[in-house]
Amino acid sequence: MARKNECIAMLLAGGQGSRLGILTKRIAKPAVPFGGKYRIIDFPLSNCVNSGIHTVGVLTQYQPLELNDYIGNGEPWDLDRANGGVHILSPYQQIEGTEWYKGTANAIYQNINFIDKYDPEYVAILSGDHIYKMDYADMLAYHKEKDAACTIAMLEVDWSEASRFGLMIVNDDGTIQEFEEKPPEPHSNKASMGVYIFTWKKLRQYLIDDEANPKSSNDFGKDVIPAMHEAGETMVAYPFKGYWRDVGTIDSLWMANMDLISPETEIDLDDPGWKIYARSPSAPPQYISNRARVRNSLIAEGCEIEGDVDFSVLFANVVVEDGAVIRDSIIMPGSVIKKNAVVEYSIVAENAIIDEYARVGAREQDCAEGEWGITVIGENVEIKEKEIVPAKSMIAKEEA
Amino acid sequence: MRAKNVLGIIHAQGYGPQAHTELTAVRTFASVPYGGRYRMIDFPLSNMVNAGITQVGIITESNFQSLVDHVGSGRPWDLARKREGMFILPPYNTSSAITDHGTRLSSLYSISDFLGKARQEYVLITDTNTIYNIDYKDLFKFHTEKEADVTIVYKHGKAPAIQGLMMFAIGDDKRINEISVSNGNDGGIETNYSFNIILMRKSLLEYLVRSAIAHNATSFERDVIQANLPTLKIYGYPITGYSAIIDSLKTYYKANIDLLDPENRKLLFDPKKPVDTKICDNVPAKYGLDAKVSNSLIADGCVIEGEVENSILFRDVKIERGAIVKNSILMQGTVVGNHTTLNAVITDKNAVITSNKNLSGDESYPIYIAKSATV
């Protein structure tokens, strides 16, 4: 048995993220690049470390290769530890046979042994889909104060958007009266952030019961939490204030990147007291030539810029040649924008090539009504010379 | 010769008067920041690792706190190993009579135990006031083919004025026929001068150092290399690609500004021979609404609201609105206030130039602002 941990975290990173289309064709959603040098999973991982949680199980299933490679021994997050640290937990073969993770609850169920090894009082269940900075230690203190079986982090969202979220109706004492899953007519604007803390002894039993129930879909939101609620367990909502974004769609991913550039940004990645860690490449500083014009942008190391870059996020080792224009776009590592090419309102994935005079994406005012949207160029795609890729298109590399 | 069979030795500090510049007042030469995100030691260390060397000793004398902080356990170079890896060799680590690292010779003598224990047959010794990216494997091949006793990497050109610098007359077969050792006053002459990258059998080094010490010798260049020229086969291996020796603020300034030339960058930062360095968790550089940047190298963590031209900005440099920075090298954490103008200035780490100042040096005599100073 390992040394006892008061609280460990289990990070659900198996989601396919199908709404991100070709961006998650080869990688799991938590591995999607974000903000010039990060991947989505860096946010919950860094939050764990900054909150003092040093044992993290990362549950992977869909396209785990790149994510496994990225997390490695956990060193970039200081999670390469003798006691605890980060562990990749993929479905494995057992005496009774091999089973995929059937649902989020089943994924935790299959790793009960892993959790028991640390003999924790509490387990945080996190998802790898959100951009936010949060001190889980504060939430744990709240959980203990309320003597809860389950605490769910909650954020007040705009009423107009409330129907997109899993909502909670909360009593004055902080306990949860009722759950509403993406209701067409919401009765609350208190959304669940996908961050849970459970008292492990309780959760353990509910997971075993849930597994024994053949009708269950083995999902936290659909099965385990309603079961706990029905049984009268103390369920509380932990109010969180601050920046939190679901980046599960192309539009929200683009928007959250743009939030980083905004002068009024609500998320400070440069906070020495709450660093966001990432596995960084070893590249020389970026070079901005005397023909370049760079404004309102985030640019990572190794970039070579000779063209115009405005309101954009450029990841490491991007090349922007002379006369090329990049506006309101996200360019992922290693992509090359050749001479006089124009990229607007687009997400260009890793190692793509936009050849000379090509035009990718368009501004809203240049499109007919209903035809505008973010353009996505998949990884390793080459857009040929003078080719025009209209707004809202999604171009993937053809399979050889 | 296999790289695994070569032990790397790096002198973290320089020797002689030229080793003492403003930049080394607070640190070893090895930890002098260079090129926007590197430290001088990254070059020899990365070159060694890229060639396949698995054990490196770093000889330190004093002021090595920043060096230890930078290299850590050696992980960025994959030298944090259970077997072999990276070793810091501080002074006073042996019980022998000479334990300080006062000279190049005495420092090599004081690491006798480390040399003796290492299983490698060869030793490659380098300095840290040099910038280059060469493939040591080619050097190993050259050494073997020539059946050399000693191979020294040299450069042809105008020699810097460094006391103790070896200068060579070299035959067509690359054998060194004559060695002169500079007294520090003969800079500028066109010659072949040493880059102090020296390869030989470890047993030969141990023998030469021991007998020089036994004869009360003090100079590695004169008493170990020059004195043994008649009896040893000493060859010169010409350096290729971009290279520079730093012996003053002026040469430091030039070696940095040289990186604004894409050709030099391509030679020095060849992706096949990457230069690795300590990873810091900085955010990508942020360019504001009024940022105007031209012909400059910018590291992660910078926030630029003003104008930057022909300059090198290390990590976390802040250029406030209205500030104009030209031909300057600003080390990590420098802040340039509103409407301040800088020209040909080198700022050391965490320097603050407050608002509405105007500092102008010259390329031949850049202004230096000390670490953590406020102007």
Question: How would you describe this structure in keywords?
Answer:
heterodimer, A: 400 residues, alpha/beta, 7-stranded mixed sheet, 8 helices, 33 strands, 19% helix, B: 375 residues, 9-stranded mixed sheet, 5-stranded parallel sheet, 9 helices, 20% helix, globular
Question: Mind explaining what this structure looks like?
Answer:
The complex is a heterodimer of chains A (400) and B (375). With 400 residues, chain A is α/β, with parallel strands linked by helices. In chain A, the strands form eight sheets. Chain A has a seven-stranded mixed beta sheet, with helices on both faces. In chain A, strands 16-19-22-25-28-31 form a six-stranded parallel beta sheet, with no helix packed on it. Chain A has a six-stranded parallel beta sheet with strand order 17-20-23-26-29-32, with no helix packed on it. The termini of chain A are far apart. Helices cover 20% and strands 29% of the residues of chain B. Chain B has helices at 42-51, 65-71, 104-110, 112-117, 136-145, 202-214, 220-225, 249-257, 262-268; strands at residues 6-11, 33-34, 38-39, 55-59, 85-89, 122-126, 130-132, 150-158, 166-170, 176-181, 190-201, 234-238, 243-245, 285-287, 292-294, 296-298, 303-304, 307-309, 312-313, 318-319, 324-326, 329-330, 335-336, 341-343, 345-347, 352-353, 358-360, 367-369. In chain B, strands 1, 4, 5, 6, 8, 9, 10, 11 and 12 form a nine-stranded mixed beta sheet that branches. A five-stranded parallel beta sheet of chain B has the order 14-17-20-23-26, with no helix packed on it. Chain B is globular, with a radius of gyration of 21 Å. The N and C termini of chain B lie far apart (54 Å). The mean pLDDT of chain B is 91. Classes of the chains: A alpha/beta (400), B alpha/beta (375). Strand 18 (297-299) of chain A pairs antiparallel with strand 14 of chain B, so a sheet runs across the interface.
